[in-house]
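Duplicate of #3305? Posting structure anyway:
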């Protein structure tokens, strides 16, 4: 539920129909901070910032209440 439903992730952790993430399996998931997650897929990584301020992770900036796909 929640992000899994929003991204169309099935019970096996495979994305169903979300652009270039479609068909990719989740290989790792971690909290980088209380309000920031990193989800690694087979060919991409998605950073989601639920916080009200931008979050800097290495050379990446995840916008407040936004996301970054690399």
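Output from current build:
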């Amino acid at each position: 539920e929640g992000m899994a439903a929003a991204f169309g992730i099935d019970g096996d952790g495979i994305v169903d129909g979300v652009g270039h993430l479609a068909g990719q399996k989740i290989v790792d998931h971690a909290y980088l901070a209380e309000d920031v997650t990193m989800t690694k897929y087979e060919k991409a990584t998605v950073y989601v910032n639920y916080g009200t301020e931008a979050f800097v992770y290495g050379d990446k900036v995840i916008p407040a209440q936004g996301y970054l796909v690399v």
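Confirmed duplicate; merging threads. The radius of gyration is 12 Å. Residues 48 and 67 are 4 Å apart (CA to CA).
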